[in-house]
Amino acid sequence: MRTTIYILNGPNLNLLGKRQPEIYGNETLDDVQTQCQKTANAADMDIKLMQSNHEGQIVDWIQEARDNAAGIIINPAALTHTSIAVLDALNTFDGPVIEVHVSQIHKRESFRHHSYVSMRADAVIAGCGVQGYALATQRMAQLLTEK
Ligand code: DQA
Q: Of 132, 131, 112, 102, which Cα lies nearest the Cα of 22?
């Protein structure tokens, strides 16, 4: 059976490609799905990309990943900066976790500089646009091979 990795996306990322394109670019989550599946195929992995505007749903998917995924790539969006619940859920997960931000959060407002999720993430990618997801997928393949 192929290894599955979860790619989780938080609030407002359903609007990727439409929302503030000067910050987040023109590509959509469907584009992200295509790019990541391509990268994952090369490593004989499957991806499951999901998005929710609701914190509890993200927590539920992280808990589900405990039994169904070898690794988690997560763009928690605004929950990055607020959610101890997401951090706690990630701390129950044993595999690698990679945090992705489309924008370079450290160049932006100071409230975006702190990430609860970074306290658990094994790697953080920010400011590479949506390419960050494919880079994270590549890195995830490497981490899972090394395991
Ligand atoms: C984001 C950065 C967050 O600060 C913001 O709240 C988002 C998206 C990013 O991908 O750059 O919604 O996670």
A: 102
Residue 60's identity, in one-letter code, is D
- The model's pTM: 0.97
The residue to mutate among 24, 55, 103, 107, having the most atoms of ligand 1 within 8 angstroms of its beta carbon, is 103
The one-digit pLDDT tens for each residue of the chain (147 residues) are 789 999 999 999 999 999 999 999 999 999 999 999 999 999 999 999 999 999 999 999 999 999 999 999 999 999 999 999 999 999 999 999 999 999 999 999 999 999 999 999 999 999 999 999 999 999 999 999 987
Structural domains of the chain ordered from first start: 3-146 (3.40.50.9100)
Q: How far is the CA of 77 from the centre of ligand 1 (A)?
A: 4
Is the C-beta atom of 103 inside 6 A of ligand 1? yes
C-beta separation of 95 from 123 below 8 A = no
The rounded Å distance from CA 1 to ligand 1 centre is 33
